[in-house]
Amino acid sequence: MSSTSSPSTPYPTRARFFSVPSLETIAAWLLALIWIFPLLYACWAAFHPTAYMVRFDLFAPLTLDNFKNAWAQAPFARYYLNTFMLVTGVVLAQFIVCTLAAFAFARFPIPGKNLLFMLVLIQLFVFPEVLIVENYRIASELGLINTITGIGLPYVASAFGIFLLRQTFKTIPRELEDAARIEGCNWLEILWKVYVPLAKPTYLAYGLVSISHHWNNFLWPLVVTNSVESRPLTVGLGVFSAPETGVNWATVSAATLLSIAPLLIAFLLFQRQFVQSFLRAGIR
Amino acid sequence: MSFTDHRKMQLYGALLLLPAAILLATFAYLPTIATVVNSLFLPGFRGAPTQFVGLENYHVLFDDPTFWKVARNNLLYALGTIPTSIALALAMALFVNGKLRGRGFVRMAYFTPTILPMIAAANIWMFFYAPQIGLFNTLLGALGFSSVNWLGDPSVALGSVIVMSIWKEAGFFMIFYLAALQGIPPELKEASDLEGTSRWSFFWRVTFPLLMPTTLFVLINALINAVRVVDHLFILTKGGPNNATNLLLYYVYENAFSFFDRTMAATITVVILLVLAVVATLKFTVLDRRTHYQ
User: Fold this and answer.
1) What is the full DSSP assignment across B189-222?
2) What DSSP element (H or E) covers B18?
3) Which residues of chain A have pLDDT under 70?
4) Which chain A residues are closer than 8 Å to B95 by Cβ?
């Protein structure tokens, strides 16, 4: 407050408010507008008649017809259900399988443990989609073609999840484990009552990253599914908007928004958690 | 701990590993081995047994100009996307790390493409690139330029795909830089302010070197993505025109599921696996020499 009384700067707050933005601010905002523009454009196209695709008229009539058309032309309800089942199934299975493996790596004396762990880490580079041909053959031998299990199963033993959870488990003090053992807990009870609760932030971070990855995944689900019954949203959208199907663009925009809406709304609501999850999960 | 207790622990640990081990063997190790083996054989026709041909499939592949075109495309794709998206990511992180009006919105705008599926992003960009009524050509037309066939002209198609990829990736890399920037002790900045160091030289002498591990981390991820992510090709170009935008993994997909040449697909997959092995070696030796894989 003392500076307010100084004669040289009578209205410091107002002066700052009216100051010309720096070159850096302008650049930052320009970049932000370019980056958000495609999404805004898709919204514009989805809520206006096709005629306004490239004619920006502030008073263009708003319409929901594009969404109606999209919903009528492809079984989006089924796609939502499939994606939802896929994402919940994969994340739950990953949590179980990766927790057990991470616990083994963090706390048990296994012969050749370091070598085994390096073998697991290979999967950080060799993803299921790189091996699509052989994985397709294996999935078909297991009778998993055109099933949601078939889309998810190759990703369940995630090296990334095992690595993240192992790191977290290693930071948990052994004293807590000893205390639980004195209370009479066996190994699985120790895991469930001591390690899992203390690793909650890691589960949250990994869960969000995994949800967004599997919601968005395309190539492997495309290969392994061939009908509406098992297709997730991304594959449904890809089939829907293939150029040769000749669907009108406003409808494609609406379909695109339909497919991304749940994840996008979740992101807008929990932006902070998303960004931090990617960060937490990414620094490995 | 007694000897038998130790044995019990070993057994217990092995049992805990078992589900992950079975799944990894099924969907990572066995397919990798099978891919390498398949690349050394030719399938028999009409019930004839498969035939070991050694490196013959590789000779065929390396004699195929299309393969070299695809490999070159992938290299250009990597060179086109990686440095630019990393530089933009760094700039974005510097922007939102400082004082900035509307910082929350700006950060959200940068990060939003990361949340979108590549296939949805490609759908949106398809409108921009469309030849007749696409947004870019409408803009060019309004400015009096003739239109460009963004995805149909072999000389610009790959560039168009690259631009979209940069847009998709930069915001993701930004958050790693942002975290690293926030980890730099503020005393360094204060000290350099006292010395009267310019912001420019502070960046090049202090910030940039301190961000080196982050840059390497981001680089590894970008390299993997350059080989792995091909979803946008399914919407934008399907590898065309005349393979101008075809990339290695998409070429594998085409060989396996359009041309039904599983042997060639396996051979190209081995090439991809070799590239990924180089990236992995880079990561485990250069990047993680003193970090936490033990």
Assistant:
1) HHHHHHHT--HHHHIIIIIHHHTHHHHHHHHHHH
2) helix B3-24
3) 1-19, 54, 56, 242-247, 283-284
4) 24, 27-28, 31
Across the interface, whether the CB atoms of B252 and A132 are under 8 A apart is answered yes
* Cα separation, B246 vs B238, whole angstroms: 7
- Which member of A110, A119, A216 has the closest CB to residue B10? A110
Angle CA B65–B67–B70, to nearest 5: 110
Instruction: Express each pLDDT in B31-40 by its tens digit.
Output: 999 999 999 9
Q: What is the pLDDT of residue A199?
A: 93
CA separation for the pair B202, B210 (Å, rounded): 11
Reported pTM? 0.89
The closest CB to that of B95, out of A24, A53, A252, belongs to A24
In chain A, whose CA is at the least distance from the CA of B271? Answer: A130
Q: What is the pLDDT of residues A94-112, one digit of tens each?
A: 999 999 999 999 999 988 9
- Count of CB atoms situated within 10 Å of the CB of B23: 20
The reply to whether residue B13 touches residue A108, judged by beta carbons under 8 angstroms, is: yes
A24 contacts in B (CB within 8 Å)? 95, 98, 100
Nearest to A274 among B24, B115, B266 (CB): B115
Is the pLDDT at B24 greater than 90? The verdict is: yes
Q: State the pLDDT at residue B201.
A: 87
Element (H, E) at B175: helix B154-182
- Predicted local distance difference test score (pLDDT) of residue B266: 93
The predicted-structure confidence for A10-40, as pLDDT tens digits, reads as follows 444 444 555 677 888 899 999 999 999 999 9
Q: What is the DSSP string of A22-86?
A: PHHHHHHHHHHHHHHHHHHHHHHHHHS-GGGSS---TTPPP-SHHHHHHHHHS-HHHHHHHHHHH
Contacts of A161 in chain B (CB under 8 A): none
User: Which token pair is B57?
Assistant: 């499939």
Contact list, A118 vs chain B (CB under 8 Å): 293
pLDDT of residue A2: 42
ipTM score assigned to the predicted complex: 0.89
- Give the number of other CB atoms < 10 A from CB of residue A212: 21
Which residues touch B61 (CB under 8 Å, ≥6 apart)? B67, B264, B267, B268, B271
Helices (H), chain A: 2-5, 12-17, 23-47, 65-73, 76-107, 113-121, 132-141, 148-152, 159-170, 174-182, 187-190, 196-198, 200-216, 219-224, 233-240, 249-269, 271-282
